[in-house]
């Protein structure tokens, strides 16, 4: 049997029950379950606002766009970001014609506060922080830098559903937090996400922007007597970014199990840790920072012979992944090449091992035995 990187688990009967309610009611769109899920998400995260959207990519774009408008940033102003992320993170900045200044990563594969400080200029407006794999890295230091330099903090929490730092869901310090509930994330739906602004005013704006700039959603209009439903105003040139009740149905069920699922992810990670404990010369797991209870979306190791190891594992029917390639290796971001040596080096040395709820202890043993057998102790050139 082959072992895949990610296999999402759905509580099928519970999901179908929620979806059936939508179909029977005749309400699959914006409102209804999307509102119910937003309320449950606020209860769970203790974040003050939450707006359900159709992807984290859409949310990241909204975050940058709305902050740019609100704080009157100009084209060419700068946001410091990481090169070791999914391209959505950086595309969101580029969509708004702001300059991405890449800063290097630390041993957690998250932004390194020391390099971030070096990259601050008069034009810097915000820091885009990614909690890679669910890790908080040096988040607190980044929060301090934002306070010191009066920068906005955007938290790409696509991997961080359920991540806690010192016992609290991470993110309350950020100006905006964006989650992904894409098909293979640790809270999987099919495609959806959440944008959580600290300020209520910006949450209101996000709700309009995510539905083409229309200033009242269908559901709340239908609660009025309905006569003037069509007479809405259009405040902004908005986008079609909001989520729907079918995705929210699945998300509602997933949220019930999130803490339990993440605990099993951490169990898997600790089995891997145990297996690699005496093989530090071959396999270096990326550490989780102190005080972080990671969602464990990813289990990443650093090895000397990454490309060969990937091929060898595939031949053994094990299919790991890579998170991520240094974004400055892509043509669109090649202007950043050479600015983040640590990210560049690690990008050719990291592998994400299979991590999902269907894996057993035996699977983890089989994977780690293969990794230890096939990882090479040959030093890098
Ligand atoms: C998956 C991912 C996104 C985009 O999420 P979608 O919901 O698929 O748009 C953004 N940032 C990171 C770090 C991701 O892994």
Automatic annotation (TrEMBL):
Keyword Transmembrane listed: no
Q: Which GO terms describe its molecular function?
A: pyridoxal phosphate binding; transaminase activity
Where, per the database record, does this protein carry N6-(pyridoxal phosphate)lysine?
A: 185
Keyword terms = Capsid protein, Pyridoxal phosphate, Virion
Is Heme there in the keyword field? no
Q: Which GO terms describe its biological process?
A: polysaccharide biosynthetic process
Active site: which residues?
A: 185
UniProt lists the family membership as follows:
Belongs to the DegT/DnrJ/EryC1 family.
Q: What is this protein called?
A: Spore coat protein
């Amino acid at each position: 049997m082959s072992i895949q990187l990610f296999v999402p688990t759905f509580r099928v009967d519970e999901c179908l029950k929620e979806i059936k309610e939508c179909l029977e009611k005749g309400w699959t769109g914006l409102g209804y379950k999307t509102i119910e899920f937003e309320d449950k998400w606020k209860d769970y995260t203790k974040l003050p606002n939450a707006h359900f959207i159709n992807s984290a990519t859409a949310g990241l774009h909204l975050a940058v766009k709305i902050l740019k408008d609100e704080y009157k940033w100009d084209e060419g102003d700068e946001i410091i970001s990481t090169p070791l992320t999914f391209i959505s993170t950086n595309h969101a900045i580029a969509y708004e014609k702001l300059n991405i200044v890449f800063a290097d990563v630390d041993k957690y594969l998250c932004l390194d506060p020391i390099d971030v400080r070096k990259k601050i200029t008069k034009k810097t407006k915000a820091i885009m922080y990614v909690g890679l794999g669910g890790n908080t890295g040096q988040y607190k230091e980044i929060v301090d830098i934002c306070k010191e330099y009066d920068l906005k903090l955007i938290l790409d929490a696509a991997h961080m559903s359920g991540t806690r730092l010192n016992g609290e869901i991470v993110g309350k310090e950020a100006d905006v937090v964006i989650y992904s509930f894409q098909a293979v994330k640790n809270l999987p739906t099919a495609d959806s996400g959440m944008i959580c602004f600290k300020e209520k005013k910006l949450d209101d704006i996000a709700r309009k922007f995510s539905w083409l700039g229309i200033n009242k959603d269908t559901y709340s209009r239908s609660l009025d007597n309905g006569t003037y439903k069509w007479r809405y105003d259009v405040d902004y040139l908005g986008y079609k970014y909001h989520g729907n009740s079918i995705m929210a149905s699945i998300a509602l069920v997933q949220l019930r199990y999130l803490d339990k699922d993440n605990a099993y992810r951490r169990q898997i990670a600790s089995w891997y840790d145990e297996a690699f404990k005496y093989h530090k010369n071959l396999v270096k797991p990326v550490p989780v920072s102190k005080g972080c209870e990671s969602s464990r979306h990813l289990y990443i190791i650093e090895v000397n012979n990454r490309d060969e190891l990937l091929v060898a594992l595939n031949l053994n029917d094990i299919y790991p992944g890579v998170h991520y390639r240094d974004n400055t290796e892509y043509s669109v971001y090649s202007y950043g090449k050479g600015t983040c040596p640590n990210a560049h080096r690690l990008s050719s040395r990291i592998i994400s091992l299979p991590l999902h709820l269907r894996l057993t202890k035996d699977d983890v043993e089989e994977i780690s035995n293969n990794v230890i057998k096939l990882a090479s102790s040959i030093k890098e050139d």
